[in-house]
Structure to design on (373 residues):
């Protein structure tokens, strides 16, 4: 009996080893932990209790092209300590310390903790497993979907890498590090339109906004004056309109709401305008506009980047719109009426319609009122 079990185990073990060896060369990264032994199958997944389909399929060739391709699976999924593994609760947190990759600058284990520390102080902070209205806020993976390496950096220019190889000898090393830095030096990042779309996915979602305003009120908190219409009003602004047409220089959400002098940390530390640290607080707003509008003064900075036309938000613009609306309609109607009077009068005068050579006054007037000599 016991012998039989052992035999089975040995066969199973051999199978696993064989599978591991067979599967190894196909991946663009090392699968030391054998996770893909199971997770490379497309059908792998399940339907959760609430009926949503979850796929547990990891496409090796795709993962191998992402920014995280050098991180072992258990570097992030560090709660998996044994195989087959137990059900997952919290899942991956983005401030997890990586035990297999060191930060070459500090010599310490790498982690996103410095970014997380900023995020913790921001308006957007929520724990990974959020409850109640905290769920409306973005966690790291809401904004970052483990993107595939930017296509612009797939080829490292030979005339540069040739020079590095002189000392470093290893072509792979040189290409990897060239790509790592060149992407940041070239400042490859989201376009203005991408940023507006990202922020608007929540700040333009009426149901989310209402639900969240209610929850904040229940906690006795006031959100910004423009909170309810931030995305919608931006679209109506000059910046929003030209950005919508694809113009790249006009201010997007983060040009104003993130501190340009430390942009990459600051996008993770967004604060409301009532916080003096915000680049659009009363004290900092002029400088923020001045970054692009060199000659801006206090009056210019007071122009509303979130123009709303509601009666309470902006009574001047509300009544101006109303009056101009009426004036426009009246002028339009008066023009039509004038044309109608003119036509009726001319018909009565015997004017006929003619396609060629115009349509008026080509017959003598029935009433002897010929104006053409
Ligand atoms: C023996 C096969 C097998 C191996 C090897 C394996 N897994 Fe899984 N994994 C599964 C199965 C089966 C499920 C689905 C479990 C379920 O439905 O509760 C799963 C689910 C998961 C989930 C999703 C769990 C959830 O509920 O959200 C993650 C994440 C995961 N595996 C990561 C890994 C990682 C990382 C490794 C390598 C260290 C690994 N797996 C190795 C079989 C395996
Ligand atoms: C940079 C960190 C990171 C690495 C490296 C990584 N994952 Fe994940 N993985 C995540 C995150 C984040 C999720 C989303 C679910 C969550 O938040 O826990 C996820 C989801 C999954 C899921 C689906 C689980 C679900 O709940 O839908 C599976 C399966 C999985 N990973 C397997 C793997 C395997 C296999 C590898 C190695 C080839 C790997 N992961 C490498 C971060 C990572
Ligand atoms: C509201 C959206 C949002 C959230 C939430 C968010 N980020 Fe970011 N992150 C950005 C933007 C925008 C950038 C700037 C780069 C760009 O535009 O692509 C950025 C840049 C980064 C970068 C620099 C990437 C590079 O190549 O230079 C890292 C790393 C990063 N974020 C990690 C995190 C981590 C970790 C968290 C969670 C603590 C997080 N982010 C939460 C939007 C977000
Ligand atoms: C003249 C020789 C020389 C040239 C050319 C050169 N390097 Fe280096 N590089 C070095 C030396 C020596 C070190 C390590 C010592 C130090 O300065 O700290 C180094 C360190 C590095 C490191 C840090 C490695 C680590 O793990 O700490 C990287 C990355 C790097 N070089 C990339 C490049 C790239 C990319 C190029 C081409 C654009 C390049 N190097 C050109 C000599 C050179
Ligand atoms: C996943 C949804 C989501 C995304 C994406 C998102 N936000 Fe938010 N944001 C919120 C929620 C919810 C709050 C309210 C937080 C609170 O309760 O204090 C908020 C708060 C804010 C505040 C402070 C509002 C106040 O009055 O206190 C600003 C400013 C802000 N977000 C700007 C942005 C910008 C800029 C972006 C795009 C980079 C963005 N948000 C992306 C959900 C989101
Ligand atoms: C030209 C600069 C500028 C741009 C671009 C901009 N904002 Fe604002 N935003 C402001 C200013 C200034 C305020 C404060 C307005 C007030 O209350 O008078 C504000 C207020 C807000 C508020 C209310 C909370 C607060 O801080 O008072 C949110 C939320 C917000 N903006 C989100 C966005 C989003 C999302 C975008 C992009 C779709 C965006 N903003 C684009 C300057 C800007
Ligand atoms: C990232 C750069 C940037 C920032 C920051 C910025 N703007 Fe602009 N803005 C532009 C560009 C580009 C235009 C297009 C027309 C132009 O060049 O004047 C524009 C146009 C405008 C216009 C339309 C009419 C005009 O004067 O040309 C107004 C009003 C305006 N911005 C107000 C502001 C205010 C107020 C702030 C500060 C809260 C601000 N902007 C911050 C880039 C910016």
């Amino acid at each position: 009996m016991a012998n039989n079990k052992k035999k089975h185990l040995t066969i199973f073990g051999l199978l696993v080893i064989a599978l591991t060896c067979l599967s190894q060369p196909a991946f663009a990264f090392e699968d030391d932990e054998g996770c893909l032994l199971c997770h490379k199958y497309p059908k792998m997944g399940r339907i959760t209790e609430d009926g949503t389909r979850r796929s547990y399929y990891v496409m090796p060739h795709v993962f191998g092209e992402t920014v995280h391709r050098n991180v072992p699976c258990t570097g992030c999924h560090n709660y998996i300590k044994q195989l087959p593994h137990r059900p997952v609760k919290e899942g991956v947190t983005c401030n997890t310390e990586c035990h297999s990759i060191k930060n070459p600058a500090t010599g310490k284990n790498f982690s996103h903790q410095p970014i997380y520390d900023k995020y913790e102080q921001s308006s957007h902070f929520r724990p990974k497993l959020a409850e109640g209205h905290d769920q409306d806020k973005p966690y790291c993976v809401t904004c970052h979907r483990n993107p595939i390496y930017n296509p612009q950096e797939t080829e490292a220019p030979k005339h540069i890498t040739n020079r590095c190889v002189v000392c470093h000898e290893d072509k792979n090393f040189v290409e990897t590090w060239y790509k790592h830095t060149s992407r940041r030096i070239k400042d490859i990042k989201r376009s203005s339109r991408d940023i507006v779309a990202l922020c608007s996915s929540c700040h333009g979602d009426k149901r989310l906004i209402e639900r969240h305003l209610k929850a904040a009120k229940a906690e006795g908190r006031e959100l910004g004056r423009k909170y309810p219409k931030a995305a919608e009003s931006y679209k109506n602004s000059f910046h929003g309109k030209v950005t919508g047409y694809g113009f790249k220089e006009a201010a997007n959400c983060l040009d104003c709401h993130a501190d340009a002098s430390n942009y990459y940390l600051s996008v993770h530390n967004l604060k409301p305008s009532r916080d003096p640290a915000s680049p659009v607080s009363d004290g900092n707003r002029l400088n923020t506009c001045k970054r692009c509008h060199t000659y801006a003064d206090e009056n210019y900075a007071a122009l509303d980047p979130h123009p709303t036309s509601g009666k309470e938000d902006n009574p001047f613009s509300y009544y101006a719109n109303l009056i101009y609306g009426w004036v426009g309609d009246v002028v339009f109607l008066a023009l039509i009426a004038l044309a109608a009077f003119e036509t009726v009068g001319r018909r009565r005068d015997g004017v006929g319609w003619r396609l060629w050579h115009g349509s008026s006054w080509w017959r003598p007037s029935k009433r002897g009122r010929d104006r053409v000599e």
Q: What stands out?
A: The radius of gyration is 33 Å.
